[in-house]
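Question (not urgent): is this output format expected?
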Amino acid sequence: MSDRLKIFAGNSNRPLALEICKHIGVKLGNTTIHKFSNENIKVKIMENVRGADAFVIQTASPPVNEHLVELLIMIDALKYASAGRITVLLPYYFYARSDKKDEPRISITSRLVADLLETAGANRILTMNLHTPQIMGFSRIPVDQLSSVDIICDYFKQKEDLTNFVAVAPDIGRVKTTKAFAKSLKIPMAILEKTRERDDEKAIIRNIIGNVEGKNILLLDDEVLTGNSIINGAEALRKRKAKRILAGCIHGVLANTAIRDIENSFLEELVITNTLYLSSEVKRSKIRVLSVGKLFGEAIQAIHEGKSVSKLFKIE
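Got this back:
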């Protein structure tokens, strides 16, 4: 493999790709991506990549399935253009929530995605805050997982006096993630006990474990999909006489009417990162967006130069 670093990107989140390139000081690679009338996709690499260290940036923004296929075709194009090594950079992993066989006759789709990436020609994967850690074990090629917990925590440390704050996990399954936030912020933790009985993504709050009365709240999670969990959680916390309620998450999926619903909720502010492409509507809401571009840029540089990247993979 030569010492040439090449960075390419699909159409899923080009603003983040350009920010990463700006941090590293390289130009985004030249490609053409054409969608035919029959919805077939053609990707052409418009520059020499023979022997190069190639990174491909693509995230699971809508349309998710189209962006996944686009990524696989781009990896394949780089492989047949004789790239020396291909690293796939997935800020938000495709099908990350489909990570277990909890019903008969279903696919563990996040495992299938790992197989597809390897088959297409990827040599390693760089991602951020997976929904569950077992996804790393699905892959037969190396997987490095970054964490943006410190980015979000630093924001709250600078903005708020955290003396009377409590970190709240939105459910039992998110305790480990929230514990990492609470440890960094040096504040106590509470847990919302909820159930989700169907695939309609609506959760019911059954109980609150911990003291929240008279406290300011930081509702903390790895992702916000429709916003129902944090909105229902905020309502339950308000009924328990919590004061201010703020929230933070890494991946702001914000599907359907999530932005509008959050805007009309008890939440004072929701802090997210730019791992997914965000519409202009976010800028007019109570949602604050923090960038992970520098962190990914540092990781790319470390991988390319063969240096240790362990300090960047801080997962509590």
